[in-house]
Specification:
This protein is an all-alpha fold and 284 residues long. The protein folds into two domains: 61 residues, no CATH class; 208 residues, MetI-like (MetI-like fold), CATH 1.10.3720. It is built from 13 helices and no strands. Helix 7 runs antiparallel to helix 10. The longest helix is centred in the first third of the chain and has 35 residues. The chain starts with a helix and ends in a 5-residue tail after the last helix.
């Protein structure tokens, strides 16, 4: 009995050490970004892992350089990223939750085809459609921060529908039938009865979609007019001078500014991710 207890304790200690090492492994790149964002550019290249002290310490010059480089205001890039992220996430949550509810409640061939089409879309690489998508976006005038969320709706629908369908299958149908008896039409039944019960999965999907859209570089780069509209990732990419030289210090400073909101948001809402994924697991 005592020997089994010691083995169990040893196993827990080894697991703890393993996860600590993994945590350090994942946090280390972020730490390097923080350290190098306060270094003079030359020391970022020659003393990457060193602490910024003395002549290598750039104070806040890298942040100032990054936010004013090329004459394009960084604040404007922040506004465009916020607009695209909020609109894209809102469209995904509203339309995919409604679609998932309909698919779950209407057992028809069309609904099954739509559902499996959404699931299949998750395995289609973006690179397969990016050139056609760019041409289509220009033709349909979806190349502005206020219209590109429609494209994000198409790419984000697969995962969202998959998670929402799994959750809706666990909602008792009796609740919706009771609402119908009380005089609720389908529209009111969804928004007044079903949607509030979908809160765990809504939060989980919102977190995943916000982190994806906020950090996305390739889609805005292909679709938006980069001379007029630049998101934060595109702004960072333009931190280069002649002959391809890059101001690494300013780049690290802007990367730090861009990941701080996502880290804060994730740490605040991380408990909802596991809860939402578990709630949205396919049932029966």
């Amino acid at each position: 009995m005592k020997g089994s207890f010691q083995k169990e304790k040893l196993g827990k200690n080894l697991t703890t050490v393993l996860f600590i090492l993994l945590s350090i492994f994942y946090v280390f790149p972020v730490l390097m970004v923080v350290i190098n964002s306060f270094k003079v550019n030359t020391f970022v290249k020659t003393d990457t892992f060193g602490w910024p002290t003395g002549e290598s310490f750039a104070e806040f010059n890298n942040f100032i350089t990054g936010m004013t480089f090329g004459g394009y205001p960084f604040a404007q890039s922040v506004v465009y990223s916020i607009v695209i992220t909020i609109l894209g996430t809102a469209l995904i949550l509203v339309f995919t939750s409604m679609a998932a509810w309909y698919i779950s409640r209407v057992d028809s061939l069309v609904c099954r085809i739509v559902y499996y089409g959404c699931v299949f879309s998750m395995v289609v690489p973006f690179q397969m459609v990016m050139f056609t998508l760019s041409k289509t976006a220009d033709t349909l005038k979806l190349n502005t921060p206020w219209t590109i969320p429609v494209i994000y709706l198409g790419f984000g629908a697969g995962l969202a529908v998959f998670m929402f369908v799994g959750f809706v299958k666990g909602i008792p149908l009796d609740i919706e039938e009771a609402a119908a008896i009380d005089g609720c039409n389908p529209f009111r039944t969804f928004f007044s009865v079903v949607l509030p019960m979908m809160k765990p999965t809504l939060i989980s999907v919102a977190i995943l979609e916000i982190m994806w859209i906020w950090n996305d570089y390739l889609l805005p780069y292909l679709v938006l007019d980069r001379t007029e509209y630049r998101t934060i990732p595109i702004h960072i990419q333009y931190l280069k001078g002649s002959y391809g030289t890059v101001d690494l210090g300013a780049t690290m400073a802007l990367i730090l500014l861009s990941i701080i909101p996502v880290i804060i948001f994730y740490l605040t809402c991380q408990k909802h991710i596991i809860k939402g994924v578990a709630a949205g697991a396919v049932k029966g």
